[in-house]
């Protein structure tokens, strides 16, 4: 019957597609971004962060980077606490992405010191030689427009002060980008809670073992040299010489849990063995 | 019986332009594949991977895909309704406006004006152009169907009508945004809601753009090419209604394990698996129509394109449901496995069916027979090999990468850093980039063959006059 009636077919087709639409797309609005998933500590973006977010969108970083950590063991180990709905309440649009050409960035905030990001964005290869991330040095030449940013804050209804807008004067898109990256995932205080309690006594299993120190040296080149320099001479992080007098266990804990406030990342995801190898390398006099 | 004055000129216009945009899509595809092997090929600010990838997907889906569907819908609707177009003038305006829209899209994407939403990157002024384009297209097709001189509407017309309403609903809902300036807007939805709306749109763009229209084309051109009717009318009715019913429940299979409510994910998973039935309804209908005609796979190059196309559709609709299962998604989501899936659909299913339809149309458009069947066969093998190498290399890459991401040592720590996994991907990226060159070579052969058809093909006067 409908096979002879195009208008009827159109109506029936519309009704047919609306059933699933209403149930799986409209209904969730009753759950999401309501009291059920609100997180008090999550705050809107400030003007500089918002400007950075818009650069992120403009450059299509989301084509290579996702922004949701799934509740899977290895994923939480690699990136940090899994993402919660309430953390995204101010994201218009969301930037979850669908590909991980590069690492997830949902919890990048606080992982590195600002200086690391400036160098990495300027020329990613200088920090990670084999990366395929493009260089974004040109962001250093573009200035953030304070008036436009104010307008954007108004449209989104985010709170700001005149001082915030004044402070944008002279800021580059690179400054904005770094500010945005440092904000990501910090709405909940997961870093402190994630500190892995080191179980048992801290006994260096490799004390005086040369091969362990050599293994530690190659680990150092891979994971540490970009911040502490090829010869431990210091760069973004402090010089790492003259540590021989340090307690093995203290050093281990610094590596294992990092010094989040100072910008030293945690390396617990490398596992205890590799961290001990690193400790033995650092303890070596050179 | 008198033959209506079919308008083939407009069909030719859309075919020519869609092929041009298709070539752009493939060229940019090859460029971004090489950028992933060597980041020095990025030329900031305009030609970086982050800006070029949306250009690639938009040129592929909107320029090549939808551009060809415009052409083929205009052809099929006239023939199936035994009547000329409702408004040839509107169609001519649409061609002009289509090109204006694609050019505006390409320029704005390179300038970095984008909404960030996959397959809906275009900012609001270009969005409005797309909506105008769709409305005038829909009106022209629907009015032509209404004034048809053929009582029954053939299967292809159902899929076309579903595509017209489906795309309209999806696009408008997902486009809700608050403009802040001429080329910047913010989504009207926030966070988890925005993600759920986006993938309700995203997956059904696959349904309404990369499934329904190529099925309309397949159902029309397979019988035309083989001379044998479609096996079962009843099967196509059931497949049609269940397909358009089920697809809309499945968007959240792109969001498994994310903060989207669990029950939405579970429904998406269940409906994705059920989708196998209507999808394979069409696959079987295609295969069974070939009963007793399989020798045509050798003798008729059009059949080769079409049957391989529907076969890839069949594989695609088995692989897709597999990817929708939580445990499997935990593994392959975010990896290179997914581009393998995508390109079996786009380079395989959609493009193969379009190539066949365009070869079939050539005599109507140029009044000449296809210049060289040999070249058409060469084209077939090049694109087939290119696509298969692309997909297989990405599936292997994806499984290996997933395995490395999830590997742990006995003390519970991660075995590989992120970079250690990426380094292992580079050989596959090189293979993929070269498979792209093979595919590109196939497309160049196709272009040459069409060009020579227009210039030097044997005249085929009577064909163009032939009635339905
Ligand atoms: C029953 C049919 C299908 C199902 C259930 C299905 C399922 C899926 C799933 C679960 C994903 C997400 C993979 C991930 O990121 O983990 C996906 C991605 C995709 N599929 Fe399919 N698929 C189907 C058919 C098709 C067809 C016929 C095409 C045609 C070209 C297609 C094109 C795509 C595209 C373009 C994406 C990538 C989306 C993105 O992340 O940007 N799919 N599909
Ligand atoms: C020579 C042919 C082609 C090459 C070399 C190529 C290359 C690429 C590359 C490198 C990506 C990015 C993959 C990633 O995220 O890791 C991509 C994505 C994509 N391409 Fe192509 N492509 C080709 C043809 C096509 C065609 C003809 C179409 C459409 C009709 C198409 C549609 C897409 C889509 C929809 C995506 C997004 C996939 C996703 O989100 O997972 N491609 N392509």
What does this structure look like?
The complex is a heterodimer of chains A (286) and B (468). With 286 residues, chain A is mainly alpha-helical. Chain A folds into 2 domains: 47-193, Cytochrome c-like domain (Cytochrome Bc1 Complex, Chain D, domain 2, Orthogonal Bundle); 195-283, Cytochrome c-like domain (Cytochrome Bc1 Complex, Chain D, domain 2), CATH 1.10.760.10. Chain A is 44% helix and 0% strand. Chain A has helices spanning 6-26, 47-58, 73-79, 114-122, 124-127, 146-156, 162-167, 173-183, 190-194, 210-223, 225-228, 248-257, 272-283. The mean pLDDT of chain A is 93. Chain B is mainly α and 468 residues long. Chain B has one domain (9-465): Cytochrome c oxidase-like, subunit I domain (Cytochrome C Oxidase, Chain A), CATH 1.20.210. In chain B, helix 2 (49-81) runs parallel beside helix 4 and helix 14 packs antiparallel against helix 15. The complex binds protoporphyrin IX containing FE (2 copies). One protoporphyrin IX containing FE sits between chains B (25-26, 29-30, 32-33, 53, 56-57, 60-61, 64-65, 336, 338-339, 342-343, 346-347, 350-351, 436, 439-440) and A (98-99, 101).
């Amino acid at each position: 019957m409908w096979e002879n009636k195009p208008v009827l077919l159109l109506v029936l087709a519309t009704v047919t597609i609306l059933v699933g639409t209403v149930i799986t797309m409209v209904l969730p609005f009753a759950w999401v971004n309501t009291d059920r998933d609100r997180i008090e500590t999550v705050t809107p973006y400030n003007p500089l962060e918002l400007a950075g977010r818009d650069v992120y969108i403009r450059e299509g970083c989301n084509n290579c980077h996702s922004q949701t950590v799934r509740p899977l063991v290895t994923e939480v180990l690699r990136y940090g606490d899994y993402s919660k709905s309430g953390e995204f309440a101010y994201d218009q649009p969301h930037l979850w992405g669908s590909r991980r050409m590069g690492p997830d960035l949902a919890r990048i905030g606080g992982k590195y010191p600002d200086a690391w990001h400036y160098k990495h964005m300027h020329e990613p290869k200088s920090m990670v030689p084999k990366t395929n991330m493009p260089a974004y040095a040109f962001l250093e030449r573009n200035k953030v427009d304070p008036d436009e940013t104010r307008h954007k804050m108004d449209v989104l209804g985010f709170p700001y002060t005149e001082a915030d807008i004044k402070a944008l004067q002279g800021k580059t898109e690179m400054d904005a980008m770094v500010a945005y990256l440092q904000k990501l995932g910090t709405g909940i205080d997961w870093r402190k809670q994630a500190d892995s309690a080191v179980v048992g006594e801290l006994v260096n299993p490799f004390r005086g073992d040369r091969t362990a120190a050599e293994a530690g040296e190659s680990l150092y080149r891979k994971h540490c040299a970009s911040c502490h320099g090829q010869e431990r001479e210091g760069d973004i992080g402090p010089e790492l010489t003259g540590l021989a007098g340090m307690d093995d266990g203290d050093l281990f804990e610094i590596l294992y849990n990092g010094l989040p406030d100072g910008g030293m990342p945690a390396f617990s995801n490398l596992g205890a063995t590799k961290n001990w190898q690193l400790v033995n390398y650092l303890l070596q006099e050179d | 019986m008198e033959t209506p004055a079919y308008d083939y000129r407009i069909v030719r216009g859309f075919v020519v332009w869609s092929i041009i945009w298709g070539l752009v899509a493939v060229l940019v595809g090859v460029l971004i594949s090489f950028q992933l092997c060597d980041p020095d090929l990025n030329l900031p600010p305009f030609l970086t991977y982050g800006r070029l990838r949306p250009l690639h997907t938009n040129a592929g889906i909107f320029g090549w895909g939808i551009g060809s569907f415009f052409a083929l819908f205009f052809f099929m609707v006239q023939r199936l309704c035994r009547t000329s177009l409702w408004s040839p003038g509107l169609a001519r305006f649409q061609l002009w406006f289509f090109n204006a829209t694609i050019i505006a899209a390409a320029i704005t994407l390179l300038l970095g004006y984008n909404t960030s939403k996959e397959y809906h990157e275009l900012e609001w002024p270009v969005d409005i152009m797309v909506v105008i384009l769709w409305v005038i297209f829909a009106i022209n097709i629907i009015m032509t169907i209404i004034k048809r001189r053929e009582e029954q509407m053939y299967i292809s017309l159902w899929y076309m009508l579903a595509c017209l309403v489906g795309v309209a609903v999806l696009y408008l809902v997902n486009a809700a945004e608050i403009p802040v300036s001429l080329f910047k807007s913010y989504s009207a939805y926030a966070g988890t809601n925005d993600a759920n709306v986006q993938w309700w749109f995203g997956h059904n763009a696959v349904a309404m753009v990369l499934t329904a229209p190529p099925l309309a084309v397949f159902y029309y051109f397979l019988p035309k090419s083989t001379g044998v009717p479609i096996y079962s009318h009843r099967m196509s009715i059931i497949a049609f209604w269940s397909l358009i019913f089920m697809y809309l429940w499945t968007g959240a299979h792109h969001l498994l394990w994310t903060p989207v409510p669990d029950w939405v994910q579970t429904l998406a998973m269940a409906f994705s698996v059920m989708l196998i039935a209507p999808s394979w309804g069409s696959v079987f209908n295609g295969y069974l129509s070939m009963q007793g005609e399989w020798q045509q796979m050798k003798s008729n190059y059009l059949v080769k394109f079409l049957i391989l196309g529907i076969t890839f559709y069949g594989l695609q609709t088995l692989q897709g449901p597999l990817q929708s299962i939580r445990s499997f998604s935990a593994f392959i989501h975010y990896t290179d496995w997914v581009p393998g899936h995508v390109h079996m659909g786009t380079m395989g299913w959609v493009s193969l069916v379009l190539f066949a339809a365009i070869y079939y149309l050539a005599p109507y458009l140029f009044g000449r027979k296809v210049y060289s069947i040999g070249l058409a066969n060469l084209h077939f093998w090049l694109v087939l090999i290119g696509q298969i190498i692309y997909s297989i290399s990405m599936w292997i890459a994806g499984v290996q990468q997933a395995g490395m991401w999830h590997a742990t040592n006995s003390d519970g720590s991660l075995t590989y850093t992120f970079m250690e996994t990426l380094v292992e991907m580079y050989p596959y990226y090189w293979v993929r980039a070269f498979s792209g060159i093979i595919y590109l070579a196939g497309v160049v052969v196709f272009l040459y063959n069409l060009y020579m058809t227009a210039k030097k093909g044997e005249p085929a006067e009577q064909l163009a006059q032939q009635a339905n």
